[in-house]
Amino acid sequence: MADNFFPGPPGHHIPGPNSFGRPHGRHEEVRNLNQYTGYFTTPEGDFPVSVVADSIKEAAKILAMPGVFGEGVNEPTTIKFVKGKIAVTIPVRTIGFRVVIDPVSAVESGAYATPSHADVKNGTEVIFTAHEPFGWKFEGWYKGDQLISTEKVTTIEVYDPYSSLIQYRAVYEPAFEWRNGRYLELGHGWYFDFKFDGWSNYVGKLVLHQRYNNDAPATDYHFVITNFDEVEGTIKVEQDASVVQDETGGFTGKLEHSPVGYTLTFETGIEALGISEDQVLSLKWVADQTYS
């Protein structure tokens, strides 16, 4: 029996006798594809249908598309390779993509990915970069439920034979840690500089840069950490006696991880600084801070 027709992915076809190797305008290009024949079994016998595609896997997808054969027959029983390197004139198709961050709470901590969206030629290789914020570990790049790569910087071929819009997911998982550094207090704009792993003869050091508005200079208050339980998050600090400063006294409190960094709950307040008992401050890690 003669072949029925030569379908392909959107824009893929077997060219006529005068069109081999010759593009037709700037929106078309010539590609070398393979010819495959799929055989559909019916009560009247086996019917062949030929297509062109990059691979037999791609040909199987095309042959299973609705309308390729008749009603009641969904896919061929066999597919055979016929010929390679057939010059096919196809339209140059653009495809859009966008990247979403999963979960959303990672975005609140500063997670983002580049590029976030773009329109490219279908099949273009694009370098994607995931930025890992404090408290989160990058898990991988996904297209739907399919894991593409676990590398923060990776090259992905932006390609889809059917859709004109692709969504990729940059997936993160919590990875909290006690980290030295500078934390922005989100309520007042104060800065807390923590050093958890030793300072002089103490467990650590804390410097509070207290500022009530952007026009006024910050006032620094120096404390030493006399006790810190990493498991429970309990912390006790005393005013650093080696620094000449206003008298404030110390405090005890509890540090707990939050999506953006820590929450610091004061068990005892600091009246001189306007911090009351049971006050809760939200601290977001913003930078490394090295103490001399």
Provide a brief overview of the structure:
With 292 residues, the chain is mainly β. It has helices spanning 56-63, 104-108; strands spanning 28-42, 45-53, 78-91, 94-102, 112-114, 117-121, 124-131, 136-143, 146-149, 153-158, 165-174, 181-185, 191-195, 204-210, 219-228, 234-239, 251-257, 261-266, 280-287.
Give descriptors for this structure:
Lipocalin, 292 residues, mainly beta, 2 helices, rod-shaped
Please tell me how large the radius of gyration is.
31 Å
* Strand order in space, largest sheet: 12-13-14-15-16-17-18-19
Poorly predicted ranges: 1-26
Return the CATH architecture of the largest domain: Beta Barrel
Distance N terminus to C terminus?
86 Å
Number of domains: 3
Approximate shape: rod-shaped
Strand content: over 45%
Fraction in helix: under 10%
What is CATH's topology name of the largest domain?
Lipocalin
Name of the level-1 CATH class of the largest domain = Mainly Beta
Q: How confident overall, as mean pLDDT? A: 84
Number of strands: 19
* Count of discrete alpha- or pi-helical segments spanning 4 or more residues: 2
Largest sheet: 8 strands, antiparallel, barrel
Structural class: mainly beta
Describe the structure.
With 292 residues, this protein is mostly beta strands. The chain folds into three domains: 1-92, no CATH class; 94-174; 181-287, Beta Barrel (Lipocalin), CATH 2.40.128. The protein is 4% helix and 50% strand. The protein contains two helices and 19 strands. An eight-stranded antiparallel β-barrel has the order 12-13-14-15-16-17-18-19. It starts with 27 loop residues before the first strand and ends in a 5-residue tail after the last strand. Residues 1-26 have low confidence and may be disordered.
